[in-house]
Every structure is written in structure tokens, then in C-alpha cells.
Amino acid sequence: MSEYLMEVKDLKKYFKTRSGMLHAVDGVTFSLRPGETLGVVGESGCGKSTLGRTLVKLLEPTEGQILFEGEDITYARGVQLKRLRTRIQMIFQDPFSSLNPRKTVRESILEPLKLNSALSARQREEQVLELMNTVGLAQRLAHSYPHELDGGRRQRIGIARALALNPAFIVCDEPVSALDVSIQAQILNLMQDVQEDQHLAYLFITHDLSVVRHMANQILVMYLGQMVELTSADVLFERQMHPYTQALLSAIPVPSLEKRRQRIILRGEITSPINPPAGCRFAPRCPYVTERCTAQTPELYEAAPGHFVACHRGGEVG
Ligand SMILES: Nc1ncnc2c1ncn2[C@@H]1O[C@H](COP(=O)(O)OP(=O)(O)O)[C@@H](O)[C@H]1O
Ligand SMILES: [Mg+2]
Predict the structure, then answer these.
(1) pTM, two decimal places
(2) Residue 201 has pLDDT above 70, yes or no
(3) Overall average pLDDT of the 12-31 stretch
């Protein structure tokens, strides 16, 4: 068996639109070990949610391959898909819209448990209480409705629902972006605690780089559907190889005065994801652009051990 829980190879998801084919995810490749977190970062619209939804099998891929626990699940259907629904889960950005407003906390958490036919009704009720305990929801809230709770508690319900069937992999799509800053850390800590306890792997989607730094082992940087860089979180914050990553990271404040960096402001047209031209999609905004960049699409390659980049400059940035 492979050491990896999930292996994704050149995954693509296109949407047919009236003006042409929209390349939402256009060639994403990564491997994830059990218990690890892969952070996915990039500007709004770069395909993060589409990638996540494709991995949890809410969307059918256009091309590429997804291996999960050694099994090809790219086009999983029927019984295989049903089994995957217990192993692969998703936590959404806005728990309010992902929860049924007419269901109490207990009912919401009970719902996924009903898919586990091995449990008796009584065992399910016990599981609900146990899950509430795991995610830090007081038992007195069992009969409350989502609108009676704050955002943090609602997200705790979302986490409990995701954990209900003992998954191995959870896609977390901006799980704290809708929450007050004061509550974000509590939810992130909870997610880290349950990850450690249950040896969960996360795909952690965010546009907040300071969040991903603390959550992720590896970070994948996306630009207009394509992955431009992938490496460990530590290395990425030390040495960015892609000009886009460098610009993205220059926007976060650094506490140390010595390491103060210049914020890079990107100018230039953003390429349309609909029928995008050949060449590097970042070229129109890249400070290092050459003729080759617009003529030839840069392939992702391993520029240093475990450090992948798709750039003709070969990682010589700055
Ligand atoms: N169901 C869909 N049909 C058509 N286009 C879509 C659909 N879902 C997403 N898109 C488009 O795909 C691109 C990526 O969207 P998304 O994955 O939501 O990005 P992100 O999560 O990074 O903000 C965007 O251009 C978006 O408009
Ligand atoms: Mg999104």
C-alpha cells in the first residue's frame, strides 16, 4: 500500500459556460499522507472551492486521477461512492447556510449518523452527545436551533457532522473566514485537536496566509486554476520560487523588523479563466515576464527536493 492517503494527478475541472469553457481547476497534482494538512491558497476565483468539491466527489472531474486509500475514485459511483461519503467529508465556510434552520443541534448531528446502519437508535443518541462533547458544545444546547447560536457554535455543529462517520479526510473550505477574529483561534484549535486525536488529513482552503501557516504541513498555491507552487509550509514562507507566491506572501505583515519585506503590488490584466490562452496565466501581471512566458506554458517541476514550481525562471525570484 502507498504511504499516501490521497494522490491527485493532473486534476482538471472545467465548466461549460455561454462564453466558452471555464478552466476552474486546470492541472492540480499532490500527495497527502494520513494525519497531514495540505493548505490551498490563492486569490478569490482561482479554483480552491472547485478543487475541494471535486475531491469530496460533489463534482465530477473533467480529467486527471484521484487515488484514495490506494483506490481509484476519480469516477466513483454507487456502492463505492456511498462508502467514500463516510471516509471523505467537508466543512463549509458558512455553517449557517450549510445547516438546516429547522433542525436542532441534536437533529443536525443525528442526520449523518443515520447513514451508519450498524448503530441502534440508542447508540446514535449516545454518539450525538459524544460528538457534541468532542466539539465543545454544551449538552444544554442539544435542542437549540442554528439562529439561536453564534457563528462559532454553528461551525462546531458543522465539525461534529463532518466527524460523525469517522472520516479519514476532510476538505475544510475557509472554515473560519466567516467568524469573528476572536472565535477563529478557538475553532482552529479544535480542528487541530480532533485532527491529532483521530489522525485526520485536511485539505485546508483559505485566503488567509497567517492561518494556513499554522495549520498546514504543505502549501499549494493556485493561480487561475493552475498550481504554481507546492512545498512544505516552512520552506514556502522562507523561500518562494514563484513570483505570484512572492507577491501573495509580501502582503502579510511580518512581526520582525529585520525581515520587513517590501509589499509587491501586482498590476496588469487578470487573464480570463474562460478559454485561457497558452503560456503562463500569471504572465500579464508578472514583474519578470519574458517572451517565453506568453509563448509556452511552464510545466510544474521539482526545482528543489520536495519543492515544486511552474515558472520558466526556475525558481530564481527576487
Ligand atoms: N458551477 C459552476 N459553474 C460555472 N463556473 C463555476 C462554477 N463554480 C465555480 N465556477 C467558476 O470557477 C472559478 C473558480 O471558482 P471557485 O472554485 O469558487 O474559486 P475560489 O474558491 O478560489 O474563490 C470561478 O471563475 C468561478 O466563477
Ligand atoms: Mg471558495
Answers:
(1) 0.95
(2) yes
(3) 97
What are the φ and ψ backbone dihedral angles of 252, each rounded to 5 degrees? -90, 140
Q: Please give the Cα distance from 217 to 297 (Å, whole number).
A: 28
Atom of ligand 1 nearest to the CA of 273: 25
Q: Which residues surround ligand 2, an ion (CB under 5 A)?
A: 49
Q: How far is CA 35 from CA 11, 29, 169, 228, 258, in A?
A: 22, 19, 8, 24, 35
- CATH architecture classification, 6-309: 3-Layer(aba) Sandwich (3.40)
User: Strand, coil or helix: what is 85?
Assistant: helix
Could you report the per-residue pLDDT of 261-273, keeping only the tens digit for each?
678 888 888 889 9
What number of CA atoms fall less than 13 Å from residue 206's CA on the CB side?
23
- Ligand 1 within 6 A of CB of 15: yes
What is d(CA 155, CA 272) in angstroms, rounded to the nearest whole number?
A: 34
Domain ranges of the chain: 6-309
Q: Give the mean model confidence (pLDDT) for residues 88-96.
A: 88
Ligand 1 atom with minimal separation from the 46 CA:
22
